[in-house]
Amino acid sequence: MVPARSPRSRANRTGVLSTAEVTDAAPPPPDRTLPPGLHAQLSGPSFAGPATFAQCPLLTEPEDLDRWQPDVAVVGAPWDDSTTNRPGARFGPRALRALAYVPGTYHLDLGIEIFHNLEVVDYGDAMCPHGMVEASHANIRKRVGEVASRGIFPVILGGDHSITWPAATAVAEARGWGRVGIVHFDAHADTADSIDGNLASHGTPMRRLIESGAVPGRNFVQIGLRGYWPPRDVFEWMQAQGMRWHLMQEVWERGLPAVMADAVAEALEDTDGVYLSVDIDVLDPGFAPGTGTPEPGGLNPADLLRAVRQLALETPLVAMDVVEVAPAYDWAETTSNNAHRTVLEVLAGLAVRRGGPSSVVKPAR
Asked: DSSP letter string over 153-199?
């Protein structure tokens, strides 16, 4: 057995405590050993070996989480039967694991080796039987709950945006009902009461979360809304809940850094933690064609990546999801790579926030 899973591991920093150091009150040290063959499989180029997120080790059982004691666990939520337009986001988790190019682990802007300072595992997928929304959402809630209830940061890969309802509910149950806020990047508000009679549409999850009390409306901050939906009565409902939103028109007029300064302040109001939800259609479809409801006039990747990094650095993030990646409509894995990098930026910010050493190499002048 090899006590380090790949060059992207921080497992080599984890030593076994001596008998003298162990007390009755001390938890057992992490066991992060892998068979030599699996370690080798996860150490090669990203186009080879098992398709796990960023070539992190795959764990499948709750007991594995207890043994490994990771900081972050990635959970796939391959559900897209709640889409209103183009389906295909069920293939998003697989695409983010198998198709995204993994360039390395050192973050140039922050000067930190991400996976040397943050222990990340892939916790597989929640099982989502086709056509069965209640069973699928229950499985998502359970699997995310297995992560969040242990104090581990869940990263959920959708799937359509309806998966945020069970995922954020599980996080609220673990972190405090009504004490978690949501920062939501999206072209659409996703606050409809129902769509075609469907209460669990990908256009309704934020209303379900507010109605349940899991996330109070005043703790919702939305960025990037644009286009022609939802209608006025839905925005009036949002206003009555105390929700805050920043339209793309405001981003265009003021610039994203100014908008993010307001959004960070709003996200920190009376919350114990922040859940980040990124619908990839917040990006302009020129950068993210592989999605079900593309809306022109969106953000560019450079801005989105820096915005989510800022949230990870400046707010108490407790979970995140990236949703609506539909690889069948993608071109050259552009959408998949943008979604993948959105997660990497958050992981880098978490590594810094948790005390990882940062050393930016500056050019000669």
From this structure: EEEEEESSGGGHHHHHHHHHHHH-TT-EEEEEE-SS----S-BTTBT
Dist CA 78 CA 91 (whole Å): 6
How many angstroms separate the CA atoms of 84 and 291, rounded? Answer: 12
Handedness of CA 287, 155, 93, 295 (dihedral sign): negative
Q: Model confidence over 245-299: pLDDT tens digits?
A: 999 999 999 999 999 999 999 988 999 999 999 999 999 999 999 999 999 999 9
Q: Which domains does the chain have, with CATH numbers?
A: 28-353 (3.40.800.10)
Q: Collapsing DSSP states into helix, strand and coil, what is residue 2?
A: strand
What stretch of H or E contains 76? Answer: strand 72-77
3-state secondary structure of 322: strand
Position 113, amino acid: E
CB atoms within 10 A of CB 264: 18
Contacts for 48 with CB less than 8 Å, ≥ 6 apart: 41
What are 147-166's pLDDT values in tens digits? Answer: 999 999 999 999 999 999 99
